[in-house]
Design goal:
3 helices; Glucose Permease (Domain IIA); two-stranded antiparallel sheet; ten-stranded antiparallel sheet; alpha+beta; about 300 residues; 14 strands; 2 domains
């Protein structure tokens, strides 16, 4: 049987001799099989290389993200520790304010968080597995909420105290000398013993008369004995102050006044022998000694 051959003639560009390579059909098949096998190996290698390259890139990216997350968690833990320290500081101030305000335990406990004991060192921010321990954050949140509630109670308390203090008579209605005190005296017009329900402050005619506490003017009226009279109601406290014998009104009924505001001018209207202010303080409708409500004398 005649063997079949395949001849490959190589002709150079120069004037050199051409070369002829003769291959049998069998050798061609073997060469083609080897070449195909090598091609498959190269393709597999290239695919594996590119796959591994992508995996390495993803792994590198994950490592970078992990490092960044660790740094973020460290910063977060530091922030939580600082926050907890601040909450602890506020809690100390809260306790001091409660003592200063003299609030009862029921009022204090209304703003206390119901959590268990233990220091911050006993409850780490991160668990052993590296996950966040949200119970620690919840404890801080509950603690902060409790402090906030109690501080609101304190704010309301001090605001009420301030309003009550501002609405409590505490100064003289005018500059001058007390010529007649609260209590029994000889009436200057009749000469008989009679009870004097206020104090008389003698001063120059036309001097300003001022409100002795915050309040609302509820009456300006000319009376037979008191002459031109102003009455001021001081809400929240039950106090009412009365200013008599004025020469002029500087306020109207319904007008709000602050302690120290001018409300009238000194005169001698009504039953008065000389310019002065008859000043009364009433608590829940009962006349009390104004002397005990003058702190600037």
């Amino acid at each position: 049987m005649t063997k079949k051959f395949l001849s490959l003639i190589i002709v150079p560009h120069n004037k050199g001799k051409s070369k002829t390579i003769t291959l049998s059909k069998k050798n061609i098949k073997i060469t083609a099989i080897v070449a195909g096998f090598l091609f498959v190996i190269i393709v597999v290698f290239l695919v594996d290389y590119f796959c591994m390259s992508g995996t390495r890139s993803k792994y590198k990216k994950l490592c970078e993200e992990s490092a960044q997350q660790k740094e973020t968690l460290a910063q977060y833990e530091d922030s939580v520790n600082k926050l907890e320290a601040r909450v602890k500081t506020f809690d100390e101030y809260r306790k001091r304010l409660n003592i200063m305000a003299g609030l009862k335990s029921e009022e204090v406990l209304s703003g206390e968080p119901g959590i268990g004991g233990g220091s911050s060192e006993e409850i780490p921010v991160l668990s052993n597995s590296g996950d966040l321990d949200f119970s620690h954050l919840q404890n801080i949140d509950v603690k902060a909420e409790g402090i906030g509630n109690n501080l609101n109670t304190l704010v309301n308390f001090f605001e009420n105290q301030k309003l009550e203090l501002n609405a409590t008579p505490s100064i003289k209605p005018t500059k001058g000398w007390i010529t007649s005190s609260f209590g029994m005296r000889d009436d200057p017009f009749t000469g008989k013993r009679a009870f004097h329900w206020g104090i008389d402050i003698a001063t120059q005619y036309g001097n300003p008369v001022i409100a002795t506490a915050d309040g609302v003017v509820f009456q300006t009226k000319t009376e037979k004995i008191g002459g031109r009279t102003i009455k001021i109601n001081h809400p929240r406290t039950g106090y009412t102050t009365v200013y008599c014998h004025l020469s002029k009104y500087l306020v109207k009924p319904g007008q709000k006044v602050k302690r120290g505001d001018s409300i009238g001018l000194v005169g001698k209207t009504g039953r008065a022998t000389s310019p002065h202010v008859h000043y009364e303080v009433r608590l829940n409708g009962k006349r009390v000694n104004p002397w005990y409500y003058i702190l600037d004398d």
